[in-house]
Amino acid sequence: MTDGRRWLMAGAVLLCSPALTFLPVQAARAADPAASGPAAPSAAQPAVPVPQAGTAKATPPASSPRPPRKTLHDRLVDAEKALAMAGNEKQAGEISERAEALRSRALTGSVQMLISDSHDALEKHDFQQAQDDLTAAITIQPDQSVLYRQRAAIRLAAGDSNGAIADLGVELQADPGDPTAWGMLAEAEHERHEPEAALKAFHQMLLLNPKSPDSDKQLKTLEQARDGQQD
């Protein structure tokens, strides 16, 4: 089993444009002083309104409202759709990285630190500490399903296929378009000697990412296991 797994720890970078407030300035008119001379007539002459330039023209129509800005979820769905239609492996890799960055966009700084600590522990083969760090991260942000997938990777590396499948179920319920989770599920089912379930999960991964690296070799391994052959 391959222990080296990638976790993208992209920070939540929020680019906020400063709001500009424009205050209309109205010029004050100065009153003319009363002129000296004979008294003015008692009946005041009515003021003649002066038409302003352009008043006879029709008021321009209001500009159409801007379309609503896409949510993080909408952008992730778009990336997943693009991944399924990628033309080659290089393009698929770039789209996959963009999707992973979107999945991690909402993670807080403290959670990212725990992920980093978990990764360090995993490199030292301290699976329990690595899992504890991810569990702490999930406690802080239980709504971020990608954390369950990351803990599943640790459990899978530690040989806990059942625990990995439980975590992957949480991720796939929230993000069924995650090809990495489907690929991990195929691996976990393969470790549990469930070849049909492994193949089903792997075929789903291929639907989402047809240009996945080494997919032909992995598919052959799973098919051999289904047919009762050795890896």
Automatic annotation (TrEMBL):
Ranges of biased composition (kind: Basic and acidic residues): 213-231
TPR repeats: 179-212
Transmembrane segments: none
Tree of life domain: Bacteria
Keyword Ribosomal protein on entry: no
Region (Disordered): 33-71, 209-231
One protein family per Pfam: TPR_19
Signal peptide: 1-27
Record's keyword terms, sorted: Repeat, Signal, TPR repeat
Record field: compositional bias (Low complexity): 33-61
Protein name, UniProt field: TPR repeat-containing protein
Source organism (scientific name): Gluconobacter oxydans NBRC 3293
